[in-house]
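anyone seen this seq b4? input:
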Amino acid sequence: MRWSSLLRHLRFAPWQTRRAFPQATLAAIARAIHAAEQAHGGEIRFAVEGALDLPELWRGLSARERAIEVFSHLHVWDTEHKDGVLIYLLLAERDVEIVADRGIHQRVPSDAWEQVCRSMEALLRQGRFEAAALQGVAEVSGLLALHAPPRSSEKRNELPDWPVVLRL
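predicted toks r here
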C-alpha cells in the first residue's frame, strides 16, 4: 500500500463516517433499497466503512478483498436464488466495490458493475455521499430488474434493507 493511502486510512476518524452518512441519509438509503426491491427478484445490501485498520493495511488488503469479506460476513450470499448484491463503500479511498452472488454475477457483465462503481465514485469525490449511495442503489436495481425479474407477487425480503456502517 502506498504511504499516502496508509496515512489517509490512519487519519480517518469515525466522526467523518457519521458526518458523511448521518441517520437521515441511512434512512433514505434504506427506503431506496426497499422501494427498488419491489421491481426485481434481487436483494441489495449497502455497507459503508470509513477506513481499514492497521493490520488490514499492513497485509495489503484491497477494497475489493474487504468487500468480499463483508459480503460473506453479512450473509449476502444467503438468498434463495443466489441473487444478493453488496454495494461496499470505503470512504478513506472514495472507493466503491460491488460484489454479486453467483446467481446474478453470471447474468450481469462485470463492466456493468464497474460502471456503477465509477459513477458513484465520481459523486463521492465531489462530497455528494447521499447522492452517490442513492444513484448506486438505483443503478444496481436497474441491472437487477433486467437480469433478476420478480418471481412472485409475494416476494419476501430476505436481507435487511438498512445500510450497515462498519467500525464506528
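Residues 3-166 form a domain with the Diaminopimelate Epimerase; Chain A, domain 1 fold (CATH 3.10.310.50). The mean pLDDT is 92. kinda curious what u guys think
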